[in-house]
Design a protein that fits this description.
Keywords: Lipoprotein, Signal. With 191 residues, the protein is α/β, with parallel strands linked by helices. It is 25% helix and 31% strand. The strands form 3 sheets. Strands 3, 4, 8, 10, 12, 13, 14 and 15 form an 8-stranded parallel β-sheet that branches.
Length: 191
């Protein structure tokens, strides 16, 4: 019984370490002298405040107002309804940190090398959360932006992006960090 718990705990720590790496693609790797026990604790904290899934209903819930600061897809996902990104969240779920929210459509190794990219197929994503960033992968569908600070990092959007106000477009970065994000449709302001 103890061996099973150890294997389960080890798998959870490895998964959380992979998630931590997957969520840090926009940050340069830092050398760390942090003891392993501290890394495991911080990784467990990340896992408890993130949603890691390929289930459409969990993605919808995680990106809702009562969801998580970080949603990570583990495979291609198709959602048959508009997906609403709502609520105020903070970086790493720390209330003292900047307002920030992430959707990761990829996996990567500990050296930040992208291993897999995933596709999120949805009629429309409605972004109401400030500083929402999508990392890698592909979004097949349109995006409506109703908040400041929308960003794409290495993401392909196979659809249109409509900003409901000029200020939202001005504050957006559709190729943050120069990672090759693209939009195949039109980028417009609805005003």
């Amino acid at each position: 019984m103890k061996k099973t718990k150890l294997v389960t705990l080890t798998a959870a720590v490895l998964l959380s370490g992979g998630l931590l790496a997957a969520c840090s693609a926009d940050e340069k790797p830092a050398e760390s002298s942090t003891p392993e026990s501290s890394v495991a604790t911080s990784s467990e904290d990340v896992v408890s405040s993130a949603s890691i899934t390929d289930k459409p209903e969990e993605i919808v819930k995680s990106l809702g107002a009562e969801g998580n600061w970080l949603t990570a897809a583990t495979g291609d996902v198709t959602i048959d309804q508009d997906l609403v990104v709502d609520g105020e969240f903070h970086d790493k779920d720390d209330a003292s940190a900047d307002i920030y929210r992430k959707l990761a459509l990829h996996t990567q190794d500990e050296k930040f090398t992208i291993l897999d990219n995933f596709t999120l197929t949805v009629p429309k994503i409605v972004v109401n959360s400030e500083n929402f960033t999508v990392f890698y992968g592909t979004i097949k569908g349109d995006i409506e932006v109703n908040a400041n600070g929308f960003s794409l990092i290495g993401t392909k959007v196979d659809g249109n992006i409509t900003f409901t106000k000029e200020e939202y477009q001005t504050s957006a970065n559709l190729d943050k960090d120069g990672k090759g994000a693209t939009v195949t449709g039109e980028v417009t302001v609805a005003e």
